[in-house]
């Protein structure tokens, strides 16, 4: 019973990441701001990891390395925010 609930929640999390990624893709298509495309890519990476973790049911040492990809997704988000803030600061200091 608990495994069914875990699979359901994993699917809901996957759906949430996917929809949020599509939302940011819509904003990117409208503005062509790289911040939105980076957010979309990192959310889809997190969605893919959720699927892989759901399929890979066995507990092993190799499963731990999948969390490095999660770290990469969050670092990608931080890099995009930093880049956007630096761009805005440069624009304001030039004016």
Q: pLDDT below 50 for ≥5 consecutive residues: which ranges?
A: none
The helix content is over 70%
Largest sheet: none
Work out the number of β strands.
0
Explain this structure to me?
The structure is a single chain. The chain is mostly helical and 95 residues long. It has one domain. 91% of the residues lie in helices and 0% in strands. It contains three helices and no strands. The chain has helices at 2-31, 34-55, 61-94. Helix 1 (2-31) packs antiparallel against helix 2 and helix 2 (34-55) runs antiparallel to helix 3 (61-94). The longest helix is centred in the C-terminal third of the chain and has 34 residues, at 61-94. The protein is elongated, with a radius of gyration of 17 Å. The chain starts with a helix and ends with a helix. The mean pLDDT is 91.
Summarize it.
With 95 residues, this protein is an all-alpha fold.
Which descriptors apply to this entry?
95 residues, mainly alpha, elongated
List the helices and strands and how they pair.
Layout: H1 2-31, H2 34-55, H3 61-94
Helix pairs in contact: 1-2, 2-3
């Amino acid at each position: 019973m608990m495994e069914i609930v875990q699979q359901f929640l994993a699917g809901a999390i996957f759906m949430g990441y996917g929809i949020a990624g599509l939302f940011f893709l819509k904003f990117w298509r409208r503005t062509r701001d790289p911040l939105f495309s980076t957010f979309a890519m990192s959310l889809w990476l997190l969605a893919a990891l959720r699927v892989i973790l759901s399929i890979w049911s066995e507990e092993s040492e190799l499963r731990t390395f999948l969390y490095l990809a999660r770290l990469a997704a969050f670092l990608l988000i931080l890099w995009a925010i930093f880049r956007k803030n630096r761009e805005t600061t440069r624009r304001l200091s030039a004016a």
